[in-house]
Amino acid sequence: MQGQGNHSIVALLHGPDKAGLVARVSGWIFERGGNILHADQHRDGEAGVFFQRVEWTMPEGLGKETAEAFQRFAEQELGMRTQVALRGAGAALPVVAIFVSKQDHCFYDLLQRFRAGEMPGKIGCVISNHDDLRQPSEHEGLPFYHIPVTKENKTQAEAQQVEVLKRTGANLVVMARYMQILSNDFLKAAGVPVINIHHSFLPAFAGGKPYHQAYARGVKLIGATAHYATADLDEGPIIAQDVARITHRHQIPDLIRRGKDLEKIVLAQAVRWHLESRILVYNNKTVVFD
Amino acid sequence: MQGQGNHSIVALLHGPDKAGLVARVSGWIFERGGNILHADQHRDGEAGVFFQRVEWTMPEGLGKETAEAFQRFAEQELGMRTQVALRGAGAALPVVAIFVSKQDHCFYDLLQRFRAGEMPGKIGCVISNHDDLRQPSEHEGLPFYHIPVTKENKTQAEAQQVEVLKRTGANLVVMARYMQILSNDFLKAAGVPVINIHHSFLPAFAGGKPYHQAYARGVKLIGATAHYATADLDEGPIIAQDVARITHRHQIPDLIRRGKDLEKIVLAQAVRWHLESRILVYNNKTVVFD
Amino acid sequence: MQGQGNHSIVALLHGPDKAGLVARVSGWIFERGGNILHADQHRDGEAGVFFQRVEWTMPEGLGKETAEAFQRFAEQELGMRTQVALRGAGAALPVVAIFVSKQDHCFYDLLQRFRAGEMPGKIGCVISNHDDLRQPSEHEGLPFYHIPVTKENKTQAEAQQVEVLKRTGANLVVMARYMQILSNDFLKAAGVPVINIHHSFLPAFAGGKPYHQAYARGVKLIGATAHYATADLDEGPIIAQDVARITHRHQIPDLIRRGKDLEKIVLAQAVRWHLESRILVYNNKTVVFD
Amino acid sequence: MQGQGNHSIVALLHGPDKAGLVARVSGWIFERGGNILHADQHRDGEAGVFFQRVEWTMPEGLGKETAEAFQRFAEQELGMRTQVALRGAGAALPVVAIFVSKQDHCFYDLLQRFRAGEMPGKIGCVISNHDDLRQPSEHEGLPFYHIPVTKENKTQAEAQQVEVLKRTGANLVVMARYMQILSNDFLKAAGVPVINIHHSFLPAFAGGKPYHQAYARGVKLIGATAHYATADLDEGPIIAQDVARITHRHQIPDLIRRGKDLEKIVLAQAVRWHLESRILVYNNKTVVFD
Questions:
Q1: Is the confidence at residue C5, as pLDDT, over 50?
Q2: Architecture of domain B8-87 in CATH?
Q3: A234 carries an active-site annotation
């Protein structure tokens, strides 16, 4: 959250809890001349799992090898699954591929946030099953790929999408109200995390037309949920959720309009947390070190 | 919401929409010397239904017959289903029966609110399947009925409950975390509305142990829902809902603790709205004129 | 809130309360063949003032003269100050002038909402003291006026702004983070309402650099306030407010980033309410019929 | 937040930031056989200050001397101001003195929470300038001290209050809507932290009758603020805040009623955080490790 130094290393660890983990991690960093900016831990007492996000600075020029050495140390000596990212001057920004259909509010919102520097990453390409958003994408200097999807061509279309992702070097896929279900095969072949925004307060109103479902049930709050996409639709690990109050006066178009504001904010929050290496997934749930 | 005059009449109407309803209702009141304090309408365009809550004052002594005359007018001439209540000096307060088990936070909260004058009604009795809350009930001057419920005696226990309700003259049953399911037969025999508090954001996590369900799913918000009880458990018309933010740091006891505050506030809100004649039920949903 | 019919008339009234106002207004409409879609009243008991928003449909072709006749009726026979607007097919959309400086998040947000049809109005022009947003304005087809403002030229600059407003036929000015104070003379000469967004929870942190003030005081929530601009800076009638939770971890740049989301939503809400004729101003406060 | 082991040590540290602090603290604990349950850090980059809350378990019987040794280590070797608390079996619970006047909602709410085990502390006594709450206090088994306060006797009354606090062994004073200003002399003589609840969103509407001020200004949200009391009324470090939405329909009694729910929750949250050693005060602001 706080301003970071010019170069920093962020590590996300998790694994079996044991005594002394905090001391060993911080000791390792200290001995190599690093200075810890943030360290946040979580222990799931029931599951016996330890989670940590630690961010530290190193003297100039020592970033890359330190990151690699830390990963070896954490995995081999501490038995922790580990992701390490370099941040700041000189480090490559993570590349995001945006999937979108015709609904454009999340698309424009993300564009504006990346442009304004709110997101530590860059948009590598826009992929859509419709051609509608070509102009604003290209106006922004973003490669736009129109890949129509039908029942018949779904396998080929997904192969094409994966090909574009590889070519773009995408590290993250963001489904900005992309109205197609991604197959399990796609998720495997893509090999990068996929963040989706569902326009309800999951697990309520999973599936299609959630605002219509919410209206029919007569709920007094509507919601939006950002989650990692998994093979089970709407069942992936939840990253962020928010709700807005409605009354009997709100008809379905009102729910849709109000919901858009929720969707934009919740999706942007999830994407930013992901790009800042704040999210650990465990047991189909997320640990978010904000 | 605003302070009321000393005597007022509150009418809740709903029925097939047609032109001139607002004019005819307000005209009827005006011609009889009444002064409208509040009038709130709602039209469900899709269903073609008109809803109204109207509250007005009458010159002293004209309350009761005016109320009855209005009901005849609205039902016979306008074709509206109508409930009319007299409020203020001289009018009888609605009587509430509280059902409770061992969880006592909603019970104490309601007690304090009735005592403080927040609720336009009075508690007529407390009914529980455990004897634990006898002392605080009787200390408050409230008749306490311990009616144990088992699988075997459920029918007789419910008959006993209905008998107490009739004797108490209860106009409303409030299930303040009463951990038993009321049968359809009970609901029919009781013949008065029943408000229940469910400790989740319905329709998410219906059924038992909702906080455990919420923890397992990894949601980022927990909720509470007050609804009218119907034969279908957790499926009745929703009156009020609220949520609170949680993180991965919150374990199940934390969810339970935070949830209690939601439950208290949401249940109290629903009870108050009901006692103020603000709620119309239609199509298993509520219109709340707050 | 609900969908409107094709043509409708919206009237906002306020004036001294007296018996029968609801009946007389609804009777007048009913007698002329109108059908009330919505009618919402408010009485300020203390001040003895009656407020009403009423929206009704008329048989085709009768909109304009009915609107004028209603205004005469309400003013002359009921003694009410009255604004009447025609909505729907054939009625002119209200014209909005957007004032902006360099901060562009509210600007882009409003553009997207007008483009998406969320706002019952159209943007007539963009006026800025900087030239930065010329390209995106003109790309959207909006006339852009760069009117630099200095201490020395303020009077002439404001005269130029007023001239543009008149030429544009603006019915509303929206200060979308326009970082200049509009003089009382400007407000008078412009002759149309001006909505401003202040980036704090007023009356807390009025004046400059509110996020810095909030950080220094150590508050746990930050806010945004949309209000009508008056001669007294930050003292005008409040239309909408919202807040977001912060912690000690949030530094000033975090407050600014989170605040932007609040500012966008609160400003958009206020502008939409205004364009839908939902706001009455009285006693430096607003009555919002949402 | 998570369940704690049977005995644990909680340390709150703050002081000049320097490299290696996390490593040295965690190393010290690890070398003595301790196991860190939670460790949370914060660095105020601007001020160059390091803050930490660390909680760890020790093998049985080693709690007290370890706590004292840690305090010496942190103060002498790390140059940190340090508070250390023992928690769990065998450790003394912190003692709370509740100050109250006639408004009783926070009083009853706290009673219920302490009784329900939500608070890791115990109420040592109730002190009031009125006699109204003697019965419910004594019914709960709590010593009740009626100490009337007038302009004339204020100094003596405060001396009496201090005497009661000393005799009770109070570690914390909670002003549960105590409608008297505590003098600077009292705060010094009491020598323990004092938590107050102010019924507005500070710094808005400081001073008397904040709901009346809020109504007059026409705000759309009302708030409550829990803070440590200091010599400057309403200017102390803010611990917790919350808000609720209001509309033009809410009159002052509605604001007061809704505000009570905010006050109860915000005050209870602040007291619980304090009793769990989660709050560090620095620069008239709080760092809350929740």
A1: no
A2: 2-Layer Sandwich (3.30)
A3: yes
* Domain ranges across chain D: 8-87, 93-192, 196-257+278-290
CA atoms D72, D74, D80, D81: torsion sign: negative
Distance CA B223, CA A170 (A): 37
Average pLDDT in chain C: 93
Nearest residue to A43 (alpha-carbon basis) of D6, D273, D2: D2
pLDDT of residue B54: 95
* pLDDT higher at C36 or A177: A177
Q: What is the pLDDT of residue C1?
A: 35
Average pLDDT in the B64-70 region? Answer: 92
Compute the nearest-CA separation of D50 from chain C (Å): 12
**Closest Cα partner for D27 from A39, A20, A19?**
A20
Q: Above 80 in pLDDT, residue B126?
A: yes
Tell whether D249 is within 8 A of chain C (Cβ).
Answer: yes
Mean pLDDT calculated for residue range C167-188: 96
Residue B48 has pLDDT above 80, yes or no: yes
- The chains found to touch C (3+ Cβ pairs under 8 angstroms) are A, B, D
Of B45, B218, B283, the CB nearest to A238: B218
Residue B6 reports pLDDT greater than 70:
no
For residue range C108-144, list pLDDT tens digits in order. Answer: 999 999 999 999 999 999 999 999 999 999 999 999 9
CATH number of A93-192: 3.40.50.170
Pick the residue from chain B with its C-alpha nearest to C39. B41
Tabulate helix, strand, coil % of chain D (nearest 5). 35, 30, 35
Topology of the domain covering B196-257+278-290:
Rossmann fold (3.40.50)
Tokens of residue D33, six digits? 């056989």
| Whether the domain at B8-87 and the domain at B196-257+278-290 fall into the same CATH topology | no
> Which of B45, B217, B249 shows the shortest C-beta gap to A203?
B217
pLDDT tens digits for range D48-67 = 999 999 999 988 777 888 99
For A252-257, which contacts have Cβ atoms below 8 Å and span 24 or more sequence positions? Answer: A252/A211, A252/A212, A252/A215, A253/C3, A254/C1, A254/C2, A255/A211, A255/A214, A255/A215, A255/A222, A256/A211, A257/C118
3-state class percentages of chain C: helix first, strand second, coil last, to nearest 5: 35, 30, 35
Catalytic hit among B104, B234, B242, B290: B234
CB contact, 8 Å: D243 with chain C?
yes
Contacts of A40 (CB under 8 A, 6+ apart): A52, A53, A54, A289, D40, D41
Angle at B57 between CA B55 and CA B62, to 5 degrees: 120
A2 touches chain C (CB under 8 A): yes
Q: CA–CA separation, B282 vs B289, rounded Å?
A: 13
Which of D52, D113, D58 is CA-nearest to residue D89? D58
Nearest partner of D55 among D75, D83, D21, judged by Cα: D83
Q: Hey, which chains touch D, using 3+ CB pairs under 8 Å?
A: A, B, C
Contact D202/C at CB under 8 A: yes
Is C220 in Cβ contact with D241 (below 8 Å)?
A: yes
Q: Tell me whether B11 touches chain C (CB under 8 Å).
A: no
pTM: 0.95
Most D CBs within 10 Å, among A2, A26, A42, to test the D interface: A26
- Residue B199 pLDDT > 80, yes or no? yes
* Distance in angstroms (rounded) separating the CA atoms of residues B203 and B18: 34
Q: Is the pLDDT of residue B1 over 50?
A: no
- Summarised one tens digit per residue, pLDDT across range C242-284 is 999 999 999 999 999 999 999 999 999 999 999 999 999 999 9
B289's CB contacts (< 8 A; 6+ apart) are: B40, B42, B53, B278, B279, B280
